[in-house]
TrEMBL record:
InterPro entries: Rv3654c-like (IPR021202). This is Helicase. Keywords: Membrane, Transmembrane, Transmembrane helix. It comes from the Bacteria. The chain crosses the membrane at residues 17-42.
Length: 122
């Protein structure tokens, strides 16, 4: 009986420390997961911006919209909070790359747009 009485005081508060450790781990893991999911959403947004910029450039190259193809791509990218890093137009095919910096991480995407390959105009 005397040995068990001496062991009790040393164990007091151990459950509180364990509960705090579990809580801290849960908060850390939740923060990490939310940050990663946020970056994935921004990645999808950047891919959509690349698509829009390529479509704008291709529409301009085809004459459907007045102006210069890469300027149209740049305007579309700016509206989607990205920057064009590369723009080429070959015939009616436009290839555009865009980039966005989020929390010090560069997220980039590329897209091509134009008429289907079987179309005599392309």
């Amino acid at each position: 009986m005397r040995g068990s009485a001496e062991g009790r005081p040393a164990e007091r508060g151990a459950g509180s420390i364990l509960a705090l450790a579990v809580l801290a781990g849960t908060v850390l893991l939740t923060t990490l997961i939310v940050s990663i999911l946020g970056l994935l959403a921004v990645g999808r947004s950047v891919a959509n911006a690349a698509d829009a910029a390529a479509l704008a450039a291709a529409d301009t190259a085809s004459g459907a919209i007045a102006g210069y193809p890469c300027a149209a791509a740049d305007a579309a990218a700016t509206l989607n909070e990205t920057a064009v890093t590369h723009c080429t137009v070959t015939g009616l095919i436009a290839s555009v790359s865009v980039r966005r910096r989020v929390h010090g991480i560069d997220i980039s995407a590329s897209a091509r747009a134009g008429p289907p390959s079987g179309d005599p105009g392309g």
